[in-house]
């Protein structure tokens, strides 16, 4: 009997240790109010994306839920309006597997939304399920679709500067190895899917890195965020139905709740003072070092060029040259079509010692990759 009690005690102790050290997420304590700001969260109808969108709505943002299913997207928008008390949560259709859908979303967004302050690429898949596409579906949904979307929305992000792009990546990027000769090859079988998932998450980290380089001095910064191991449907939806009832309680015990998973993406979207870390990878609300393959600037640039081709971007489609792209003075009143009568200044959104006549080239100057900021309150 004593041995049994001792065993149970040891097990409980081990679980508490694991829970507090590995499972429980440090909360994002960024203070930013988002009144008058607009955010887009992809894949916001479930899991981490839904909890991310909820927090943005609670802080007063107008939140666009970019989801592939109208039914699930509208239902999530309804839930989030109820829970946050913010009526400015809307659904817009976006299927990242379809480049035409990404373009249609961008057109609809740009014609109806005057601002874009926060773009969170959260949507992702871990498996192709039953679909058989003639291309690499995991790369398409997890990287190429978000790449194209960022490109098309860049002028609006720049005009709304200071603004941020957050790419929800994963620690799985550490197992990624990009083979540029077969990036878009269809993925078959679970082994190839696991590999393709890791590759696509490495692509996320490299994309954030190259995007930060290209956007230096524009007032738009970007970050790759790892949400931690989260109890969502990402992997569970692909396990056989009979196994799910067994795995769910286990997942509940040892994985983070989606709200916990949302903390690092939120930190990257909201935390003041992290602009010099644009392009870096964050986990547990802290910047983290990445393996050599994920900080290879030549690979990041090569991926950028390959992604342009896979996204069908022509040489004339260069968002950088859009005449709309000049950052507007964040202190100026909103345009007449804006749904927001009163817009905060840059310093209200990301409180830091900036003046209203901000020179973005100094604000977003990045610090060298090896250097670290002091740990943030989080
Ligand atoms: N869960 C984890 O442990 C974990 C760990 C590291 C990183 N992540 C990353 O976190 C992100 C969110 O994952 P999650 O755990 O919250 O999983 P989830 O609950 O499965 O959410 C994924 C979301 O992406 C959407 N989505 C899938 N394919 C799409 C498409 N073609 N177009 C538009 N939206 C699409 C899904 O919509 P439907 O509902 O319509 O399918 C869903 O809303 C992913 O990028 C994932 O890689 C998760």
Mean pLDDT: 85
Measured as a percent range, the helix fraction is 40-55%
What is the CATH class designation? Alpha Beta
Give the ligands present.
Answer: NADP nicotinamide-adenine-dinucleotide phosphate
User: What's the N-to-C terminus distance?
Assistant: 43 Å
Continuous helix count: 13
Structural class: alpha/beta
Topology as H/E string? HEHEHEHEHEHEHHHHEEHHH
Quickly count the domains.
1
CATH architecture: 3-Layer(aba) Sandwich
The order of strands across the largest sheet is 3-2-1-4-5-6-7-8
Give the uncertain stretches in residue-range form.
320-349, 351-356, 369-378
Please tally the β strands and state the result.
8
Rg of Cα set:
21 Å
CATH fold-level assignment: Rossmann fold
Overall, the morphology is globular
Largest sheet: 8 strands, mixed
| Beta-strand percent range | 5-15%
Report the CATH superfamily. NAD(P)-binding Rossmann-like Domain
Features:
disordered C terminus; 8-stranded mixed sheet; alpha/beta; 378 residues; Rossmann fold; binds NADP nicotinamide-adenine-dinucleotide phosphate
Description:
The chain is an alpha/beta fold and 378 residues long. It has 13 helices and 8 strands. The protein has helices spanning 2-23, 47-58, 70-84, 99-112, 137-159, 189-215, 233-236, 244-254, 258-261, 263-270, 297-310, 346-349, 360-363; strands at residues 38-42, 62-67, 89-93, 118-121, 163-168, 220-226, 281-283, 286-288. The radius of gyration is 21 Å and the shape is globular. The protein starts with a helix and ends in a 15-residue tail after the last helix. Residues 320-349, 351-356 and 369-378 have low confidence and may be disordered. Bound molecules: NADP nicotinamide-adenine-dinucleotide phosphate. NADP nicotinamide-adenine-dinucleotide phosphate (NAP) binds next to helix 2 and helix 7.
